[in-house]
Amino acid sequence: MQLPFEQFPALSAIEVCRHTFTQRIPGIDLSHDKAEVLKRLEAAHREIRSSIGMGEWPLFTAQQIHGNKIAIVNEVGSALRADRGRRGAASLPGREFPGCDGIITNQRGIVLGVYVADCCAVYIVDPKTPAIGLVHSGRKGTELGIVTNAIRQMMDRFGSDPANMIVQLSPCIRPPHYEVDFAAEIVNQCRGLGMKEVHDSGVCTACDLGRYYSYRAEKGKTGRMLALLALNPTL
Prior knowledge:
Number of helices: 5
Number of domains: 1
CATH class: Alpha Beta
Structural class: alpha/beta
CATH superfamily: CNF1/YfiH-like putative cysteine hydrolases
Number of strands: 14
Helix content: 10-25%
CATH architecture: 4-Layer Sandwich
Largest sheet: 8 strands, mixed
Strand order of the largest sheet: 6-5-4-8-11-10-12-13
């Protein structure tokens, strides 16, 4: 069986990073709560990670509470959390960062991951520094400016220049299946920071339930797509 995932041309063209976006996994019972469904998806997601050469790399994920806080991985095995108004940060245990909806890093050979089912996974790559970010942004997160927060944190922490950065928006819910076009607002926010390369998949999750999960279309009984992004190890 062909593994159900996709990749985006704009990111595939960047040699410094690897990425993927998983699709609907056949045969998964979705009648359970989110934690149990994610557990049932884990084996397929692990297989997809392995197929693109990221299977042995540590995976860092965010709790995802529809906020605007960003976790910063500044060395493997150590992480800092900061929000828009803070410059101090506290060490966090484990590989899932509580209270955060995005992660940024300049470390190679680790994987950033966010889960989505209608919200947008926003991939951010600075190929010059290099550095990367991965953000979970739905309606509320977009209103709170989480993507611009992540970009500003990359500028502050890693010296990234928005003019050199590439942004890719994943499939997400869109009008007429949703009343707000938050994907368009994410694009506008990125352009407002001076970003030249902002790519939107333009795909609506609720329009293709054969390929994607949709929280709204499936009334909450659904799975999650997993967005993954990593910097290649130094050769």
